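User: Assemble these into one structure.

Assistant: Restating your components, then the assembled model:
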Amino acid sequence: MKTCLIVDDSRVVRMVARRFFEGWGFDTREAADGAEALDACAIAMPDVILLDWNMPRMTGIEVLRQLRSWPRGTTPKVIFCTTQTDPAHIAAAIKAGADEYIMKPFDAEILERKLVEVGLIATVDA
Amino acid sequence: MAQEPPPNLVDAFPGLAVTPLETNMDDLLREFLTETTESLDVADVELVKFERDPNNREILNNIFRLVHTIKGTCGFIGLTRLAALAHAAETLMDKFRDGIPVTQEAVSLVLVTIDRVKLILGDIEASEGQEPQGSDADLIDQLLAMATQPVAVEAPIAAPAADPVSLVPAPIRTEAAPTGGKLIQTLERELLPGEVSLDELERVFRETPVETPQAKVPAGPAGAPAPARRGDDDASPTSSIAAQSIRVNVGTLEHLMTMVSELVLTRNQLLEIARRNEDHDYKVALQRLSNVTGELQDAIMRTRMQPIGNAWQKLPRIVRDLAQELGKQVELEMLGSETELDRQVLDQIKDPLTHMVRNSADHGLEMPEDRRRAGKPEKGMIRLSAYHEGGFVIVKISDDGKGLDIARIKAKALENGLADEAELAKMSETQLFRFIFHPGFSTAAKVTSVSGRGVGMDVVRSNIEAIGGTVDVQSRAGSGSTFVIKIPLTLAIMPALIVEVSGERCAVPQNAVLELVRIQPNSEHAVRRLKDAPVLCLRNRLLPIVHLGRVLGLVPEQSEDTFDTGLIAVMQVGNESFGIVVDSVSHTEEIVVKPMASVLRQVTLVSGSTILGDGHVIMIVDPNGLAQHVAARSESLAGQAAENGQANAEAEDAPVSLLLFRAGSQEIKAVPLSLVTRLEELDRTRIEQVDGRAVIQYRGRLIPVVRADGDTGYEKTGVQPMLVFSDDSRVMGLAVDEIVDIVESRLDLELASASAHALGGAIIDGRATEILDVSHFLHLAFVDEPETDRNAAGGRRHLLLVDDSAFFRELIQPVLRGRGYAVTACGSAREALERLASDRRYDAIVSDVEMPDMDGFRFAEAVRGDLGMTRVPIIALATANPGLAIQRGRAAGFTDCVAKFDRPGLISALQEFACAAEGEAA
């Protein structure tokens, strides 16, 4: 079973995302801030991380930078998740090592497409 | 863990791709409402902090993130109205981060926005998910206008206006055509100002070079690489950091609580059986069951505990808005917000607390200019503190404002018919303060929109008493008031003492019981009578006691209370200490409280019932009700004492020498030794009758003699012990039966006496002792003598006496009056200054040096400086180190300094200075 880590300080966002991921058969874990996310990765590296940008304690970009510097930190696909519509911001996320980005709010269709793009879901049912 | 084919989404989640959130919408909505409300509460607090500290990036980031999260989650629920509003607020917050100045208006605007969001949330909750109709254009316009203030702000990379495409109003939803092509996320709404089109973002995303070497360039759908290989690092795939705490429905917890309550009852039943059968095999198992039940109960209790900070969260915002509205400056300090208490209790005190804090800000604190005039910082302080004490949580709300206005309370009490003039005159300050808890009682001079409608403190009190708590107030004119709330940690299960009285058993909540004392006649633990009231002397305190059977109506009306046997449970309720007499105490038990049936609610002495282990249903005595009963009884006694001028039974800490004697009965009586000039034993034949009054020749003059027991006749023979009082020219003898001793003792004047000749009671050597009022006897002895006839200069001289000790004021006033002065007594320097401000015609001021709040030195400086009264003599009364006091005192403006108990010194100083100062006073 593929594993997924949902990182967001909002329970609502985690709840929504968890439903989607579990619908696609992912084993899903959650983290409420950046530090928790890194702890979770240290315990078990997930296949994909849905990573919020703006969180208490540590921003998504900091999490990403740290994670990518770890020996096994490059394995997870990271989908960066934000409401920030600032291009510079997106650029910073990509530079830090994000594989995809997604705008909040997202729906299942968009998220699924992103997963296909990072290669975690083979095809999308028509 | 082989590759699984991707599950068929449509099968797994019918309709998911189209309307993804329809399933379990309720759950999500509820979660959204809870989360957003929490975020808003935090945002409120943070914003108030931010306003004071606008340069704090951390606070700003916190607020930004909260608003941002609200905006982000609104979208998932499809709440476009909320999202738009949150976006506008976020835009402004973002500008703050860019450095536009944070004005009070801007913060107010964001706060108003938060209020609007709350309003909309309320509607959504009420309508179960429907966003209310309406427009927030007004707020959004204001927010955006403020955000675009002409301050040099770096333009975003792609300014919205520069990109006409992004302003295309129609939703540009690309047809979801998953034919191997790209699915581009779309916004189904117009772009908000400050947003960039998704196309633009997509372009940035695709064009950004990736620097991390290992990170893959986003690949097309066709070139999907194999998923990363799994290692042993997924050993615990189900572990979730976020899942270390879970949210549980309150209903579930309540149910658990009920079940545990039942378990406790069953355990109690088993223990009761075990008590009756000594030998049995299951004792060990039972003991274990008992322990586990106890632990289970603790654990469940803990799940119900919440920090009191949850109830305080809204206060900074409320205080801030209020301060702005009233034009005051208010600092709110909160200490001990992590103190935990039962959720149910917390809910109950939330509103009372809010009300009290509003009251402090509105009525307690003065306007900045008034504060400055009173020598205080312009910014008023409200301090909330909470801590655990025994099974209680103590919450204090104090302010450094003007204190309760006694005069207004009196006027209001008269107006509402709660008491008449005579009753008011007898009441102590504490009793007067309690009027504020009466229904319809508001002392605010004018009704503000905030408070002052008189529906406040009585509701506060009844709310707090409904959960077995107490509320009390302490106040000092000029320096502020403190409300003390004492509430039980929990309501459901509590330890109680099972007592027996007149053949009935009752439960007495253990957290109100300080100790148990066995009554032993002829020992230090005997019940004595002070006048007609039974009292217990316990370690130098006098406690009023009541017979529990009597107050509960379990003994016949006409029977006489005897206090020869039994136990006294010493209770403490609020500031009230008293004892209740019971026949015996059987054991302590964790009782499960069953509320009273509504028909029995008016029975104030009983708070509920419980089922004992043996199946009996018994009443739970309400300590609050008992305290009120006791207070009502002792107030009538205290009221009479006030007639003697002893209005304020403050404790006097310094020990005083007392002369003990007997007169009329076996009871020991006392007078302060400092008032006694000599002790004499005279031959009774020397007592003569002149004009129907007893006199003796004493040191060459004729002095009146009065009997301390009130009689007038004298034996013809034998020796008559006598105390001689004198204040220079007036000398009298007080005839007593026997002089017993001289002791050093603290005077507490705890229980006021009912008679005119006594100041009150005190404990001396463990015994209740009446302290006689010397002025009463002076008055008796010189009944016909005009008080001023010895003042040759004519005209009564007026003195202002300032001393924080009620006892000392009472002690010195008769002496001064006896010397022909008219005396106005004040309990504090501030009170004295107020009096002087309105009436300067005093011939001299006599002031204590050591006083709380404003001491004698500062008082003298204020009189000389602020009031400009340069000539009125001020005589200092010093207790410690008079030398130093004289030195400092002269600099501060004292005319002279005498030791506190040196009455002749004071009299001669007054004679010297008060007469010399005639010019100014007239």
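Chain A touches chain B through 75 residues (CB under 8 Å).
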